[in-house]
Amino acid sequence: MSKEQTFIASIDQGTTSTRFFIYDKSARIIGSHHVEFTQFYPEAGWVEHDPMEILESVRSCMTKALDKATADGYNVDSGLKAIGLTNQRETVVVWSKSTGSPLYNAIVWMDVRTSSICRKLEKELPGGRTHFVESCGLPLSTYFSAVKLLWLMENKEEVRAAIKKGDALFGTIDTWLIWNLTGGVNGGLHVTDVSNASRTMLMNLKSLDWDEATLKTLGIPAEILPKIVSNAEVIGKIAKGWPLFGVPIAGCLGDQHAAMVGQACRRGEAKCTYGTGAFILLNTGTVPVKSTHGLLTTLAFKLGPKAQTNYALEGSIAIAGAAVQWLRDSLGIISSASEIESLASKVDCTGGVYFVPAFNGLFAPWWRDDARGICIGITRFTSKSHIARAVLESMCFQVKDVLDSMHKDAGEKGEVKNEKGEFLLRVDGGATVNNLLMQIQADLLGSSVVRPADIETTALGAAYAAGIAVGVWKEEELFASGQNIKTASIFSPKSSVEWRKKKVDSWCKAVERTFGLADLEM
C-alpha cells in the first residue's frame, strides 16, 4: 500500500555530477540518484562541459530517483509539492532561443582561458582589478561569468551572430536547466536567482538587478540576460516531456548558498563545503561587508520576493577534492577517492612535504592566476602516504587562510562563538566523510569543526528553499538555534599552538613558490 505523504525534491547539479533527491516532510531522503558526466580539457587551463549531457543527466536522475521511491511504496507523483534547484556557480552557457541548441560548450567556473581578458581590463579600467567591486563585490578574475561571456563574444562567431540576430540567450547552469525544464523553445522561462546572478560580476548587490553601468562598460547586451528572482518562490512548472510534469520549480540557489541554507547559517555563522573546490561563507546579515583581506562580498540568500536579503563574505578555493581526483585519475596513487584516508593514515606527518594545488592559479585570499601547482620538500624518505597526507593538508591550509582573512574582515562583533569562546566551522560536502581530513582541519584551525549528520546540505538547502516557497516549511523554524549541531560530529583540536605556527609558516613559504609559474615552457 502506498504511503501518502508530502514530499519536496531537489536537483543538485555539481561540477562533476548531477544528483536528484526526494525528501519527506521531516527532510529524510526517500529516493535519490546520481550521474557523473564528462569533463573536457581542450587545452591547458581550459575546462568545459556539454550542456546537453548535463540536461540528460538531470532527466536520468529524476527518473531513477522517482522509480526508487515508488518501488519503496511512496506515492511521490501525488505528494510532491515542489522542486528546488542548486547548481555549480559561474559556469556559463550561451544558446539559441529558436533551436534550443548550445552555441558552444559550457565554460566551467575553474577555467582560466580568460586571463588575458582580465589583464587587458585591469589596464584599461580606472579602478583596475577592483573596478567593479563597489557594485558587485567581486574583483576582476577568470572565476566569474562575465569574462567567460566576453570570451565567447570575442572568439565564437556563432555567438556574435546569434546576439546580432536577437537569438542568443545567456545563463549560468540554473538558467539553462530552468529554461529547458519549463518548456525550452516552447515557452521556457529565462530566469536566474539572486545568488547565481551575484556571481556573474553583472548584478548590483544593493538593487539586486543587472548593473547598467557594468553592462555598458563591458559591452554586454541586457537583452540576452535572464530575469532575476529570489531564492524561494514559484518560478514555473515542469513541462511535458519531463518526469514530474506540472510540479512547480520553487527554489533556486547557487550551490554554496544552498549549503548555507542547508546548514541554517544565521548572521555570524560560517560553513565550508568541501567538493571539487572548497567554499567558505560567513553570513554577515542584511548589510554587505566589504573585504580588505582578499575575500568576496556576495549575496548569501533571499528566501522569498519580500524576504530580507542576507549577505556573506566568501573565500573560494579552486582545488580541494579535485586534488584527490588528480591523485586517482592522473597519477594512479589511489584507485578510489575513499582510499586516501587509509593511505594518509599510515604516516603521522607529511615528512616535510608540502603540496599546493594551484592547478589553475590560486583564488582567495591570494588571487594569483599566475600561480601553478607545486610539491616541495621531497626526499628519498618520501612515500605516497606522505604525498597523500600533504594533499589532505593542502585543503585544510587553504581553508585556514580564508578563515584567518574572514576573522579580520568580520571582527569580533561579526562572528558567533559558543560558550567556550570558540568560533565553530560548520562543514559539509562529500570529502567530509574523511575523519582524518576533519581532524587535520581542526588541528590547523585550533578550533572545533562541526559535521552534520546529513553532509549533503547543498541539496537539502535547495529543498528547504522550495519548501518555504510552497508553505511546507517556515524559514524561522529551519533556522532555529542549534538544530543541526545537536546531531553533529564535532572534531576538536589536539595540536599545540607552537606546532600550528610552524606548519603555517612552512605552508606560506610553499605558497609563495607557486607565484609566476604560469609561463613555464611546456
Automatic annotation (TrEMBL):
Catalytic reaction list: glycerol + ATP = sn-glycerol 3-phosphate + ADP + H(+)
Pathway(s) this gene product operates in, as recorded in its UniProt entry: Polyol metabolism; glycerol degradation via glycerol kinase pathway; sn-glycerol 3-phosphate from glycerol: step 1/1
Keywords: ATP-binding, Glycerol metabolism, Kinase, Nucleotide-binding, Transferase
A single cellular component GO annotation: mitochondrion
GO biological process: glycerol metabolic process; glycerol-3-phosphate biosynthetic process; triglyceride metabolic process
GO molecular function, one term: glycerol kinase activity
Taxonomic source organism: Gossypium stocksii
UniProt xrefs under SUPFAM superfamilies: Actin-like ATPase domain
Pfam families the UniProt entry points to: FGGY_C, FGGY_N
Signal sequence coordinates: none
Name this protein carries in UniProt: glycerol kinase
Family: Belongs to the FGGY kinase family.
Residue intervals of the Carbohydrate kinase FGGY N-terminal domain: 8-262
InterPro entries in UniProt: ATPase_NBD, Carb_kinase_FGGY, Carb_kinase_FGGY_CS, FGGY_C, FGGY_N, GK1-3_metazoan-type, Glycerol_kin
Organism lineage string: Eukaryota, Viridiplantae, Streptophyta, Embryophyta, Tracheophyta
First-tier enzyme category under EC: transferase
Keyword Glycosyltransferase: no
CDD domains: ASKHA_NBD_FGGY_GK1-3-like
EC number(s) reported in the record: 2.7.1.30
Entries under PANTHER family matching the protein: GLYCEROL KINASE, SUGAR KINASE
Domain named Carbohydrate kinase FGGY C-terminal: residues: 270-469
